[in-house]
Amino acid sequence: MGTSSADVIVIGGGIGGLSAALALARRGLRVRVHEQASAFGEVGAGLQLAPNCTRILDRYGLLGEATALGVLPESMVMKDAVDAGELTRLDLRDVERRYGHPYLVIHRSDLHGILLRACDRAGVELLTDARCTSYENVAGGARVRFADGGTDEAEVVIAADGLHSVARELLVRDEPVSSAYVAYRGAVPFEKVAGNDVHEKDVVVYVGPRCHFVQYPLRGGEMLNQVAVFESRKARAGEEDWGTPDELDAAFAGTCAPVQKGLPSMWRDRWWRMYDRDPIMTWVTGRIALLGDAAHPPLQYMAQGAIMAIEDGWVLGEHVAAQGARRTGHGSGVDWDKVLAAYEAVRPEHCRRVVTTARAWGDLWHLDGDRRLRRNALLHGRDVHDYTFVDWIFGPTALTPEDEPEMFRPIPLDTVPL
Ligand SMILES: Cc1cc2nc3c(=O)[nH]c(=O)nc-3n(C[C@H](O)[C@H](O)[C@H](O)COP(=O)(O)OP(=O)(O)OC[C@H]3O[C@@H](n4cnc5c(N)ncnc54)[C@H](O)[C@@H]3O)c2cc1C
User: Fold this and answer.
1) Alpha helices in 103-242 (DSSP H)
2) Strand 202-208 relative to strand 75-80, pairing
3) 54 CB under 6 A from ligand 1?
4) For atom 50 of ligand 1, which residue has the closest CA?
5) Residue 27 predicted with pLDDT over 60
6) Which ligand 1 atom lies nearest to the CA of residue 19?
């Protein structure tokens, strides 16, 4: 289905697929991306990009463009959604000094567009209307088959086909895990909501019983991104039709005025049910490798899903570069078995930690009763310059298991006095 032979086929042109394509093309490889949709694009609103991602964008020469299209917020503020009291904060200018790269918020479509243009400049072949239906290993590489009956073949296939990955079925028989939580989004012109007690320059997260609400500026401050997340009673009751707008209003009924003021500007015609999958430690079979949400879809509470996908591609690119392979008459010269083994040695464990921590953060954010008060006491007591809970994420992306930092050990809530 391609016009010439490629070294690498990437299935899926989301943020994960495009960033992997870029990472490999800038190492001199011929890369072809197959996307099922009729056009490349991203739906949804904002994305938070922590220093472990902006560091990679910088290495790709894309940080300037991302900064120009996004916003560098001053602080991340966590508040209680019931009484609006501040619980703790991260000084993001200090974060930039500490980790050497900024914390950036950006519209998804802007980041996707940056990656798409960079792929184009790097010579990546970008094909649409190509729904991959099966994968198989063949001598010296792997082959993919498409819904229209066509096939394509390369030395390696990177499956970046998202939460409902077809490729994942080669490795494990599992299903997405429903959290019974649903997200509503709403990116609106800032002037429309300027009177709603909003912070112009901060990422603000209101955490409340079975719900939370996030706000941050986008596009140089022209827009405000809002995300409202709540537990669906209908989902818990096993009803099919869950997450509907009537549930949104009911879920936030007990929240403070700034949250209440934000709710009317949420989009009500679509919502995102929140799923992750249990971590898996095998991502590679022969010359087929999973990447991004196909490998490790998280709940979004750590805002690391797209970042992990970008890190995956970076790690592949670095291991290709480390080989210093030379193209021969037969192909790229890359020892893919070595590259994929190095990838699989380091990425699944990191992503397992993030996926499981994201679940735990969700639990912590959504507490009620005494446990909510203990959580608040714990967060109030945190030194705002204590970075132990993000050091293991915001530092440089590990290329080997030895580089992977110690994981943060949470303080058990039961040990916190009321
Ligand atoms: C509410 C919410 C907020 C979030 N906030 C953040 C955040 O602040 N920071 C962050 O880092 N992450 C965040 N995330 C997570 C992040 O959005 C995802 O982890 C990330 O977009 C995954 O990218 P991906 O390319 O792996 O998968 P996807 O974005 O799902 O892309 C998969 C692509 O593959 C294509 N495809 C699928 N199947 C096929 C097929 N069979 N053949 C061909 N093409 C196919 C799809 O059309 C799509 O283009 C958030 C998620 C949610 C739901």
Assistant:
1) 108-121, 190-193, 233-236
2) parallel
3) no
4) 300
5) yes
6) 25
Checking DSSP bridges between strand 223-231 and strand 211-218, what pairing results, if any? Answer: antiparallel
Give the active site residues: 216
β-partners of residue 275 are 178
Please write the tens of the pLDDT for every residue from 329-364.
889 999 999 999 999 999 999 999 999 999 999 999
The reported pTM is: 0.97
* Predicted confidence band of residue 197 (pLDDT cuts 50, 70, 90): confident
Structural domains of the chain sorted by starting position, each given as residue range(s) with its CATH number in brackets: 8-42+108-175+278-415 (3.50.50.60), 177-276 (3.30.9.30)
Per-residue model confidence (pLDDT) at position 44:
73
Q: Whose CA is nearest to atom 7 of ligand 1?
A: 303
Q: Which atom of ligand 1 is nearest to the CA of 160?
A: 26
Q: What confidence tens digit (pLDDT) does each residue in 369-403 have?
A: 999 999 999 999 999 899 999 999 999 999 999 99
Is the C-beta atom of 128 inside 6 A of ligand 1? Answer: no
What is d(CA 392, CA 168) in angstroms, rounded to the nearest whole number? 27
Query: Is the alpha carbon torsion for 113, 119, 123, 128 positive or negative?
Result: negative
Strands (E), 198-350: 202-208, 211-218, 223-231, 272-276, 284-285, 288-290
Tell me, in angstroms, the distance from the centre of ligand 1 to residue 344's CA.
Answer: 20
Task: Label residue 1 by pLDDT band (50, 70, 90).
Answer: low
> What are the residues facing 229 on neighbouring strands?
183, 212
Contacts of 373-379 with CB under 8 Å at 24 or more apart are 373/418, 374/413, 374/414, 374/416, 374/418, 375/207, 375/413, 375/416, 376/80, 376/85, 376/87, 377/416, 377/417, 377/418, 378/411, 378/413, 378/416, 379/78, 379/87, 379/88
